[in-house]
Amino acid sequence: MKVKRAAKYGFCSGVRIADLKVKRFAAGGGRGAILGQVVHNERVVEEMESLGVRTVEQIDAVSESTIIFSAHGVPPSYHHEATSIGLKVLDTTCKFVYDIHHESKEALADGFHLIFIGDPNHREVIGYTNDLDPSRYHIVSTIAGADAVDWSQYEKLKVFYQTTLNAEDFENVVQAIERRAQRVERADTICYATKENQDAARVLATDPEVDMIIVIGGKKSANTKHLWEICRETKPSYLVQGVSDLDRNWFAQARVVGLTAGSSTPDYVIEEVEQAIAAI
Ligand code: SF4
């Protein structure tokens, strides 16, 4: 059985930098707590804990001297809240996420009503919206959600996408808004890393040589799930977190197994899975 990796997969630049920053901090003797998972991958969380950097869900649960903000970013007020109780901040927020923070702030100052296309419970979206006046923005992810608002009441609207979404999947939602609005501008906020992994997964899924696909990533990783959805449209595809999720029966008919991984999956997990498949 042969394993064929997608042309692009795994850690994006933002996650690679976040991972490095935390490891350097720990290697220098730093002890801290990460607010939410540094990336959405359980193995990375375990690895961080072994380095002395645990994960917490609330700022007031941090007993160490440093709080670490993940690549997804946090609402600006969290920085103030942390420093006001004497915590140092290690900020690993991705540059592209900060770009959206800045662009949405400017749009607000220019009088736009903001629309965030994404998951209201995702940390990244919470980061953009938590501190805003609720009358100045909407979070939308479905046509029904888009149709439920009278957009014509706003003079101008600006649309931002959660970085890890596939814009094509939400084109009909944005068009539903555009049909009923006076003026809509779109911010180009889809992260190229996510798109590159998705495009490469599509190529892998339509490769006639590939019989089935294994997608590796964390249970809570939205972009990993998107990769899985893309792959299973065309080929039998299985989402695994690591070697222990593999089932020998999946591979009974397979000669070539495609392999891809979400942008929060570390290289060593990908290696382990590839070796385990090769051993089967
Ligand atoms: S997926 Fe893109 S926006 Fe998100 S952390 Fe990675 S590089 Fe940054």
Characteristics:
single chain; alpha/beta; Cobalt-precorrin-4 Transmethylase, domain 1; 4-stranded parallel β-sheet; 10 helices; binds iron/sulfur cluster
Task: Describe the protein's architecture and organization.
This protein has 280 residues and is of the alpha/beta class. It folds into three domains: 2-10 and 192-279, 3-Layer(aba) Sandwich (Cobalt-precorrin-4 Transmethylase, domain 1), CATH 3.40.1010.20; 13-93, Rossmann fold (3-Layer(aba) Sandwich), CATH 3.40.50.11270; 96-186, 4-hydroxy-3-methylbut-2-enyl diphosphate reductase, catalytic domain (Cobalt-precorrin-4 Transmethylase, domain 1). Helices cover 38% and strands 19% of the residues. It has helices spanning 13-27, 42-50, 76-84, 95-109, 123-129, 143-147, 171-179, 192-205, 222-232, 267-279, and strands at residues 2-5, 32-35, 53-56, 66-69, 88-91, 113-117, 137-140, 157-161, 184-186, 212-216, 237-240, 256-261. The strands form three sheets. Strands 1-12-10-11 form a four-stranded parallel beta sheet, with helices on both faces. A four-stranded parallel beta sheet has the order 3-2-4-5, with helices on both faces. Helix 3 (76-84) links the parallel strand 4 (66-69) and strand 5 (88-91). Helix 8 runs parallel beside helix 9 (222-232). The longest helix is centred in the N-terminal third of the chain and has 15 residues, at 13-27. It is flat. It starts with a strand and ends with a helix. 43% of the residues are buried. The mean pLDDT is 94. Iron/sulfur cluster (SF4) is lined by residues 12-15, 71, 94, 96-97, 163-164, 191, 193-194, 263.
